[in-house]
């Protein structure tokens, strides 16, 4: 009883994993495993607690609630949100249809206008010029409205690419004015230089000077600022074609002209600076320095352009000459084929003239352009083309019986299979309504004579020149 109580107390105090030393000699072998210096083998005690407890039940309910939320509650919420949105759209369309239509059309129109404005360089430049005009003083705006004196230089209305083309291909000076509306010094150059009468007079006195401007919101102006390494705004630069002279074995040789930045001002200007004496004279000196070379370039470009025009004209004349030669050859070949073709056909029609006992024929009277009237019997199963061929033979005097052809029928079919005779006349029926027989020639399958009621079994046709 005391041993049982002792083991229960040890188990309660957590000492059940240790074994006491045996008292008998027989257990010495077993006790050697638990002597000092040896580690006893660890044993796993059996858990006598029940597997179903509060923690396990709470864990199960937690997983179950998450699955219920994922599979049932969230889909229901999504369906309800979508249903309410669709219902709101339907209500807007049904009860507020006019307002809904006007709103959508207005948005579409504004979007189209914005896209057009963003992509049109002329609109961008016009907006930039309008912004500059708004920045003028009230007195300057009154002068601008009166049109007496220009208050702004004549900005180029177009993209920078177009302005650069003018400066490059016509050897002109090109001012570029770049501004940044977010810069505190953005109006310095505008107020002191751009609107200065001395600066504006440069463009009035010299037609070979252009000016283009843009704000950094314009992609072209932004790219130009990067290419010119502009570090401060506003920026006013002068561009023109330049070239250098290098020495070679043949003597001094000038390099190909390229566009270069020859003068610039950027950033803010001091208040005490004399604009006309310093800034504007700076540009004038550069213009005088490069103007003589640009005059030479303009002459060279003009001569180059005229030589290109002359070469193009010579090429056009050569192509026209080749075309005329080809047409003459084709005309000569056509006349030769036409002569052989009519010679061959004349044999057939001369034979028909001698046959007076045609069983099924159409008796057609033909009034020629010279007033002569001829009556001929055509086999009704023949195509209407035979009537036109007969008139052609009659006009060219192939039916006098003296013309002979050495071409056999087999050779003729092979030679004339792709030949098409061109008729320079039309055959008209005088019966109302006046009908042209030529209209049937435009059809893919030409009809037979017996299929035309106003010429079969007899009829009258009048020959008229085209």
TrEMBL record:
GO cellular component, one term: endoplasmic reticulum
UniProt superkingdom: Eukaryota
InterPro entries according to UniProt: Thioredoxin-like_sf, UAS, Ubiquitin-like_domsf, UBX_dom, UBX_domain-protein
Domain UBX, first and last residues per copy: 357-462
SUPFAM superfamilies per record: Thioredoxin-like (SSF52833), Ubiquitin-like (SSF54236)
Membrane-traversing stretches: 67-88
Gene3D superfamilies: Glutaredoxin (3.40.30.10), Phosphatidylinositol 3-kinase Catalytic Subunit, Chain A, domain 1 (3.10.20.90)
SMART domains: UAS, UBX
Protein's name according to its UniProt entry: DEHA2G16852p
Keyword annotations: Coiled coil, Membrane, Transmembrane, Transmembrane helix
Organism from which the protein derives: Debaryomyces hansenii (strain ATCC 36239 / CBS 767 / BCRC 21394 / JCM 1990 / NBRC 0083 / IGC 2968) (Yeast)
Gene Ontology MF terms: ubiquitin binding
Keyword Membrane listed: yes
Segments forming a coiled coil: 320-347
GO biological process: ERAD pathway
């Amino acid at each position: 009883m005391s041993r049982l109580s002792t083991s229960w107390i040890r188990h309660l105090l957590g000492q059940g994993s240790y074994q006491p030393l045996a008292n008998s000699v027989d257990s010495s072998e077993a006790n050697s495993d638990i002597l000092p210096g040896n580690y006893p083998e660890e044993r796993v005690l059996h858990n006598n607690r029940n597997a179903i407890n509060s923690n396990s039940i709470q864990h199960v309910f937690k997983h179950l609630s998450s699955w219920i939320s994922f599979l049932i509650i969230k889909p229901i919420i999504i369906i309800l949100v979508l249903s309410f949105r669709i219902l709101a759209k339907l209500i807007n369309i049904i009860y507020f249809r006019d307002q809904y239509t006007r709103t959508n059309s207005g948005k579409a129109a504004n979007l189209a206008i914005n896209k057009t404005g963003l992509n049109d360089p002329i609109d961008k430049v016009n907006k930039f010029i309008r912004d500059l005009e708004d920045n003028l003083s009230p007195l300057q705006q009154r002068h601008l409205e009166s049109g007496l004196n220009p208050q702004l230089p004549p900005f180029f209305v177009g993209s920078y690419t177009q302005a650069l083309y003018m400066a490059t291909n016509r050897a002109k000076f090109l001012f570029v004015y770049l501004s940044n509306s977010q810069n505190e010094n953005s109006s310095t150059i505008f107020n002191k230089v751009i609107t200065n009468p001395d600066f504006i007079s440069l463009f009035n006195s010299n037609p070979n000077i252009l000016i283009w401007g843009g704000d950094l919101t314009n992609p072209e102006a932004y790219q130009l600022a990067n290419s010119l390494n502009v570090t401060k705004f506003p920026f006013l630069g002068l561009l023109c074609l330049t070239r250098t002279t290098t020495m070679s074995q043949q003597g001094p040789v000038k390099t190909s002209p390229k566009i270069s930045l020859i003068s610039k001002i950027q950033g803010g200007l001091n208040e005490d600076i004399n604009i006309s004496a310093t800034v504007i004279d700076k540009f004038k000196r550069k213009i005088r320095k490069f103007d003589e070379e640009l005059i030479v370039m303009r002459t060279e470009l003009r001569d180059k352009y005229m030589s290109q025009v002359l070469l193009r004209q010579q090429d056009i004349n050569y192509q026209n000459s080749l075309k005329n030669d080809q047409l003459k050859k084709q005309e000569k070949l056509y006349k030769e084929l036409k002569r052989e073709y009519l010679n061959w056909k004349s044999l057939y029609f001369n034979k028909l003239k001698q046959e007076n006992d045609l069983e099924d024929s159409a008796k057609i009277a033909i009034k020629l352009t010279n007033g002569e009237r001829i009556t001929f019997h055509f086999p009704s199963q023949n195509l209407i083309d035979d009537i036109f061929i007969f008139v052609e033979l009659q006009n060219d005097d192939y039916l006098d019986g003296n013309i002979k052809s050495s071409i056999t029928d087999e050779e003729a079919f092979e030679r004339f299979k792709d030949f098409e005779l061109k008729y320079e006349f039309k055959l008209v029926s005088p019966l109302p309504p006046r009908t042209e027989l030529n209209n049937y020639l435009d059809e893919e399958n030409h009809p037979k004579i017996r299929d035309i009621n106003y010429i079969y079994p007899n009829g009258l046709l009048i020959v008229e020149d085209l």
